[in-house]
Design a protein that fits this description.
The structure holds two protein chains of two kinds. Chain A has two domains: 93 residues, no CATH class; 218 residues, MetI-like (MetI-like fold, Orthogonal Bundle). Chain A is mainly alpha-helical. Chain A has a three-stranded antiparallel β-sheet with strand order 2-1-3. By secondary structure, chain B is mostly helical. Chain B folds into two domains: 115 residues, no CATH class; 231 residues, MetI-like (MetI-like fold, Orthogonal Bundle), CATH 1.10.3720.10. The two termini of chain B are 52 Å apart. The chains are: A mainly alpha, B mainly alpha.
């Protein structure tokens, strides 16, 4: 039966309607991803920003002889529970260092206990009514305030939430990344140079290529098993050390650096190589003096992206023991260290509620570093990219 | 001597030998040339020749010594190895310097040496793969000597803690395989969370790829691509925290509202968050594949009077299907091996259930808990991590292999070189 023109135009309308629906449907997927990102970042900001401020109270510190023995005696009984125990513990040391303190009494702004800090930020706490009354009185007199939390950036980890900071983890991260870069950058670039400039098209080369792709697909936790079995158990690298962590992450970063460096090398046109050969350069001279310098921006971009990924990696480092409690920053590559994401993981597992905001704040710091690293990479690429 | 002192001494020694070799080699070459002799190569090339003949033997000896020391810890003290390596390096420096003569073909020697150094560097990635394979394989074999392989694959009771108690002489001691290492609940938990993740990631990822490849104006693409890449760049520990602190309580209260009972460690929260993490992996590869379907096919279809929707559904997508499947498989392999999200947000209790609102644990969680506990390294409880790692390794490698083959088929069929 032949269709009437009416039928056909109705059908056509339907088909075009479907087509428009499809467009909106596919666009909504993209919007969903964007909305998630916004929600996620807002959530982290709401949770994490309060941690950049910390509660302080002004109390009278009595540097008596008794306080040198028993730090708790340095403050009056009513505020004794409100002052951070970590701060009190430092008093005898300070008195020993500065003998003129002995016998003096003065008003000082001191770090408050984490419960006080949470109360000042308007959260539910386990404080008793009597303590709350004291805090309210102090706040009325302007003696309880939130101040910028410098300790968060200068302290190491602590079992007291108000004392816990990122410094030792940040230094650990830097040490680990130095090892990672020192291992993965030369090896990765040399591998890329071999594959792009020297390798004949034979079985070994194809095997290498397949192998590098496989290495990129292996789950990160298995690199941790490798680090544990080879670096720590076999070669005797100290457990939890920046050296073990850096080498493990170096192997993980290797495929990223190789793949991006190869792309950068192959973007250099052959005419450059031919010109170098034409004036009698050997293959290595052509690579060293011409191809490599021209592809360096691309190689750096790839390496920065690889480093950013290594900086955010946690799973393999947990396996090789880098979640240890490290209050003091490591000073060498073989000392036990922890890294930023591992510190975040440790805090996330803490029972005290005041660690939640520190965890989120740590995440904000980590994300800021990662975004600036990636932005640097994009900037480098834009600035030095050569279009041939 | 401490490990770091040994390392520092060695690297400083090699550096010193190298610098010494460079300047001595060059000054000798310059002197010889000034004497009127016709040199085969440039002075700089003689300098590098000397550097290699000094540092090369030292580095090779040090690497052999490190491997021997790894095998037999007390074969000889570490400082002796450093002394031997540096001594040989000094000897090499002397010999190399002696060979700097006009007829020495330093340039060709250098070229050959560079090639071998590059091959050695390239072999490290092979060593890494085999290192992973063998380190896992050997420990896994030791595990299967203690426990039954068959029960590991088919058993439903995963209780490494009981195995620990038995080894300590408490609990019911059993001879031979204990029946505490049946990994099916772990596989089931991993499968459940991966399935949830793919249910989130595949529809959103592929739709986003279709929009970006087929509809989006360039301006939108320029914004959307980096946004998706940010999703891929967020560390997994951050996703884990988000899943545990924000998403899981939301799911619990949502389930409460409809009268369901959900655990705070439910499988849904890590699954959904993991799905979001995987979106960019799927969308970016799918986008590339869809974009490289030849436009002649689209034009042919549109010329027949089809709408854009029909062209995409009946022409472009079928053509791009191998690539999309390949992207999905890569996403699955990533989900299977993902660790931090499940460690932080999924449960620790092996639980064989089909209800995503219950808590369940995964292969990767069990690996982490086996290796972070206080168990002895030689115990079956610790070694079970390597058996699980072996399973993970084999499955992800197989998925990667299939995915590479699919992509290659697509590339050959449409003669695309950009992928």
């Amino acid at each position: 039966m032949a269709q009437s023109l009416d039928d056909i135009s109705r059908q056509l309308k339907k088909r075009h309607r479907r087509s428009a629906q499809m467009k909106w449907l596919s666009m909504s997927a993209l919007i969903a991803a964007g909305v998630f990102l916004v929600l996620f970042l807002t959530d982290m900001l709401i949770k994490g920003l309060p941690a950049f401020q910390q509660g302080y109270i002004e109390v009278e510190i009595d540097y008596s002889e008794r306080a040198a023995e028993l730090p708790l005696a340095a403050v009056q009984a009513d505020v004794r529970d409100l002052v951070s125990r970590g701060y009190l513990r430092l008093i005898p040391g300070r008195m020993a260092e500065n003998e003129s303190l002995l016998g003096t009494q003065r008003m000082e702004w001191v770090l408050a206990d984490d419960e006080v800090d949470q109360y000042l930020k308007g959260r539910q706490t386990g404080l008793k009514d009597k303590q709350i009354a004291v805090i309210d009185r102090l706040a009325e007199q302007g003696r309880a305030e939130l101040k910028f939390n410098t300790g968060f950036f200068t302290n190491g980890d602590s079992k007291l939430p108000e004392m816990a900071g990122l410094a030792s983890a940040a230094i650990g991260s830097v040490l680990v990344l130095i090892v990672t870069l020192a291992f993965a950058f030369p090896v990765g670039v040399m591998t890329a140079v071999y594959l792009e400039e020297f390798a004949p098209d034979n079985r070994f080369t194809r095997f290498l290529e397949i192998n590098i792709n496989n290495l990129a697909a292996i789950p990160s936790i298995l690199f941790g098993l490798l680090g544990l079995a080879i670096f720590i158990n076999f070669f005797g690298v100290p457990r939890s050390s920046a050296l073990a962590g850096g080498l493990t992450l170096g192997l993980m970063t290797l495929p990223i650096i190789i793949i991006t460096s190869r792309a950068a090398l192959s973007a250099v046109p052959d005419s450059i190589r031919h010109a170098a050969f034409g004036v009698g350069a050997t293959r290595w001279q052509a690579v060293r003096d011409h191809v490599l310098p021209l592809s360096m921006p691309g190689i750096f971009t790839g390496s920065i992206i690889g480093l950013a990924q290594a900086l955010g990696e946690t799973a393999p480092l947990i396996i090789i023991g880098m979640i240890a409690y490290i209050p003091d920053a490591p000073t060498s590559f073989t000392q036990a260290a922890t890294v930023l994401p591992a510190q975040i993981f440790t805090w996330a597992g803490m029972p005290e509620s005041s660690y939640v905001e520190r965890t989120a704040a740590g995440i904000l710091v980590l994300l800021t570093v990662l975004i600036s690293l990636n932005a640097t990479a994009v900037y480098l690429r834009k600035k030095f990219e050569h279009r041939w | 001597m401490q490990t770091d002192q040994i390392l520092i001494t060695f690297f400083a020694g090699v550096l010193l030998l190298g610098v010494l070799g460079f300047f001595l080699g060059r000054s000798k070459a310059v002197r010889v040339r000034a004497g009127g002799a016709h040199m085969h190569s440039q002075p700089g090339q003689y300098a590098w020749f000397t550097v290699l003949s000094a540092a090369g033997p030292a580095v090779i000896v040090a690497m052999i010594a490190a491997i021997v020391l790894g095998l037999f810890e007390t074969a000889f003290p570490g400082w002796l190895a450093v002394l031997g390596a540096l001594g040989l390096g000094a000897f090499g420096l002397f010999v190399g310097l002696n060979r700097v003569r006009p007829e020495l073909q330093a340039r060709d020697a250098l070229e050959r040496a560079v090639k071998w150094v590059l091959i050695a560097a390239a072999s490290i990635s092979v060593l890494a793969t085999f290192g992973i394979l063998f380190s896992i394989l050997f420990e896994a074999i030791r595990f299967f000597q203690m426990e039954s392989f068959w029960y590991f694959i088919t058993g439903t009771n995963w209780a490494p803690g009981d195995a620990f108690l038995e080894a300590a002489g408490r609990g019911e001691a059993t001879e031979g395989p204990s029946g505490n290492f049946g990994a099916v609940p772990l596989f089931a938990g991993t499968f459940m969370i991966t399935a949830i993740a793919m249910l989130v990631a595949v529809p959103i990822g592929v739709s986003a790829a279709i929009y970006m490849a087929e509809y989006a104006p360039n301006k939108v693409r320029d914004v959307a691509k980096p946004v998706l890449e940010v999703l891929a760049g967020i560390p997994t520990v951050v996703y884990g925290f988000f899943a545990a602190i924000t998403v899981a309580p939301l799911i619990v209260s949502a389930a409460d509202a409809v009268g369901l009972d959900a655990s705070f460690n439910n499988a849904l929260a890590p699954g959904v968050v993991m799905g979001i993490m995987i979106i960019p992996f799927i969308s970016s590869l799918s986008d590339d594949v869809i974009s490289s379907v030849p436009s002649a096919m689209r034009q042919g279809s549109l010329a027949l009077g089809t709408t854009r929707n029909e062209t995409i559904r009946h022409v472009v997508l079928p053509a791009a299907l191998p690539g999309i499947i390949s992207a999905t498989l890569l996403g699955v392999s990533r989900a299977l091996g993902e660790t931090m999200i499940v460690v932080m947000a999924a449960g620790m209790r092996p639980n064989l259930t089909a209800n995503p609102l219950e808590d369940m644990t995964t292969v990767t969680v069990s690996i982490v808990s086996a290796l972070t506990g206080d168990n002895e390294f030689e115990s079956a409880a610790t070694l079970s991590a390597f058996a699980l790692g072996l399973v993970l390794f084999v499955i992800t490698l197989a998925l990667n292999f299939v995915s590479v083959i699919m992509i290659r088929r697509f590339r050959e069929k449409y003669a695309v070189n950009a992928l």
